[in-house]
Protein 1
Amino acid sequence: MIQLSNVSKTFYTKKGKVDALKNVSLQVNKGEIFGVIGYSGAGKSTLIRCVNLLERPTGGRVTVNGVELTALNSGKLKEMRKKIGMIFQGFNLLKTATVYDNIAIPFRLAGVPKSEIHKRVEKYLAIVGLQDRHDSYPSQLSGGQKQRVAIARALALEPEVLLSDEATSALDPETTETILDLLLKINDVLGITILLITHEMNVVQRICDRVAVMENGEIVETGSLSQIFTAPKHETTKKFVNSLFHQPLPKSLVNELKSSGPIVTLSFTDTSSGEPALALVSKKFDVYPNILSGNVIQLKNEPYGKLIVHLQGNAEETKKAVQFLEQRGVRVEGVNVHDFKNQRIS
Ligand SMILES: Nc1ncnc2c1ncn2[C@@H]1O[C@H](COP(=O)(O)OP(=O)(O)OP(=O)(O)O)[C@@H](O)[C@H]1O
């Protein structure tokens, strides 16, 4: 549905040139919710603005629904943009217009008949749950309600793709949840493909099917939500995943415990494989697993858990316990088999 092929974008500033995107290639499939996550300055905004050519790439091709946007003249591009809705962190509503007019004005400018405009405004205000706020002005709405109006305005164009530029970053956690639920509904009920950028891993965790991680103008890792959580490869991806979990253990505790067995991180997507497997470990081997910290979160379609566990026992037994856990689909990290040999276990 969206394809970026070797897209680059260079800005020339007084201080010199900035390569905001460096040969970025990305494929978003029809019907999916695709998230691009990265820290500030990674190039996310530039990337999403290149999709509808709000920002024209310096090099490469952008194709949406089979049409190469980078090859279109401005008239045709204007037509294609109607199929690409966009929502923003700051909502971008007209302050002096009512909710109704914020949605209706683009249609009036395009000469759409009044009755058709009315039908669309009604339909999409109902979808976002604001059918009773026609006459309100943006200043009379909460942040979440403003974003709902912005979403209704984007949907009223009946786009095939919705671009979301940090749409929940200005909202409190509870309101964020309701907007994420709305995006899920839009994707599910209307079948709209969503490409979103965010710096918040909880957004990715809740609604994305696939994820790309950006750093320094490049995509450093791409994968399904499950791959990104269970087997992150790049350091930045690991940091984002860990941001949803525990704080590091106190050094003094680590030093105290490591003499009597390794401290490992266990991760699993099937909750039946986490704690029950640990119970079996203590039965089958001469190892006493002690959970130091743990958390289970809900990914879009499955639970995902992470536990930090001290495996108290001798080297031979803890090695067997680790193998047993891995055989049961539990990912075990932070343990180096060679370390076992040198460990003096009490
Ligand atoms: N119009 C511009 N002129 C010059 N440099 C720009 C422009 N827009 C972005 N940049 C630079 O490009 C790089 C990527 O910026 P971009 O806004 O795309 O990152 P981001 O990941 O969206 O970060 P943030 O979340 O802070 O917005 C940064 O170094 C930024 O300073």
Protein 2
Amino acid sequence: MTNLNKRQSAETASSPSQERKPSTSSTLKLLLGYAKPHRTAFLGVSVCALLGISAELLQPLIVQIAIDDHLAKGEGGSSLLRLGLIYLGIAVISFLFTYLQNNLLQYAGQSIIARIRKDLFRHISKMSMSFFDRTHSGSLVTNVSNDTETISQFFTQVLLSLVRDGMMLVLIIVLMFSLDAQLAMFSMLILPVIFIVAALFRSYLRSTYQQARSRLSRLIAFTAENLSGMGLIQSFRQEEEQFGRFTEQNRNYWNANLRQIRSNVLFNRTFDILGNAALVLMVWLGGRAVLGQSMEVGVLYAFVSYIRQFFQPINQITMQWNTFQSTTVAVERIQRVLETEPDVREPGEKEQIRLPSSSLRGEVNFNNVTFGYRADRPVLKNLNLHIQPGEMIGVVGTTGAGKSTLISLLNRFYDVDAGTVEIDGVDIRKVTQNDLHAAVGLIQQDPYLFAGSIIDNVRLFREDITREQVIEACRFVGAHPMILRLPNGYDTHLSERGSGLSAGERQLISFARIVVFRPKILILDEATANLDSETEKLVQQALSSVAQGRTTIVIAHRLSTIMHADRILVMQDGELTEQGTHAQLLARGGHYAELYRHARQSGREQLPG
Ligand SMILES: Nc1ncnc2c1ncn2[C@@H]1O[C@H](COP(=O)(O)OP(=O)(O)OP(=O)(O)O)[C@@H](O)[C@H]1O
């Protein structure tokens, strides 16, 4: 399959219209796979639940013995006290086992969810750029946060309910039949009514739950989008409009949430009424039996207690059905991400060729490369480019000419559709991502900084790179004085995206990263486009220091950045139309000369495009 075909099939697979229906069996398969390493804990939960509820269910029997065997015969005193102490002891035992069972279950459940989250994050970070082109980051955030949280409810609520309430129900039925088979038979008459009510409510409860969840997701996505675009919103004075849209989303969620709560309350209270009706029936039938002396008072008391407890597990299990439904939806969403293979694949062990950084020369070749983001629109067409080790290359061209695409292919963010991209004569598809990204360093226009100190941002949280190495790198690129001016110097904590630093300062930090990580090939994608001339001078100096001994490719809109390059490439509509030194290209009088003339006329060094 070609890459284009692969991209298309991946796009189709993730389109909403093609979403598969969540299936119970695949949900269980995934969950049981994750639960397997914790089977001892789950066995412990079952044993504790059995012992806990057995102790709980013994309590009415103790009272029955106290009434029928002691009170009814006029016995009291020490034997009643002994029964009272046994009752208390059993209550303590029930508490202890329930406590143990909850702790074990929470431990296993939370460990499983942490593992799912870890797997998901690792998988997402290995995905190719094409995956991020077609997947909304908000939906991935929901996968990692909300969906895993929903799955956690499966372990901490659904499973617990199935085990505990299931066992409780069976034990209650056994105890009721052993106390009085006839009365127990009458109680069972209520079961069909319970099932009918549960079935009637089930789909209504599920739809209210799903509606509330989807409205909450929309509200979260809307808020996240607004936070990241707050600068734009304020500069266009859109606060009121956005507030209006937020209010509407908020109201929608509020309505859906209230509807869900109302339906839950209605369901629970209907069950209460059924329970009370069964109780009245038991008291009436049992009371007649007691009066007719065919039943003892204590037995009736125990029966009434069990009937009250009988409805609790049924109610719980029915409620868990909804949670299970939302778990299947969450599992399906997570599975869809986990099953998506990266379009850019690691080479197999046999075809792998190492690119050891110690012996790397930094030669780059694009041989007859054709590539398009979509099957029907090639962006690069049959492109040939040979870059010598240590050469400094400048790339110019109009908007959309394919300059950034060239860089993306060299980083293997996408695979070529035809031809090859080589480093030191090795096809980069045969190189591991680790080796490739150690060989190629990228500095983007708006370098990304993480929440953390300056030190951590330069060494990207790698503990094996020392503080001294970081400081030396910052001195080398000329960032040291600027960092010392910050409130806590190298330990200054940067907030997310590096706000608090200017664009130029962020650039200098990303240059220091390059010095620390030592890639042999350096790429700058319009790194100086947004800088004032003072800062640009600083960045220029840093660039010439960092470019020493490295193959450097600079995409620039500013002439000054690339005028002194060994070679300037001119790209137009996906093709290399001219190349040579600044002087050669001017002498040629082609597209570059025209771009240069435009730039001079406008009084700025900014190239059009
Ligand atoms: N992720 C993408 N998905 C689909 N099409 C894309 C994507 N990135 C770029 N393109 C398209 O590919 C073509 C080349 O884009 P590219 O970003 O390489 O151009 P460029 O020369 O770097 O332009 P600029 O100077 O404006 O950044 C454009 O038509 C663009 O719309």
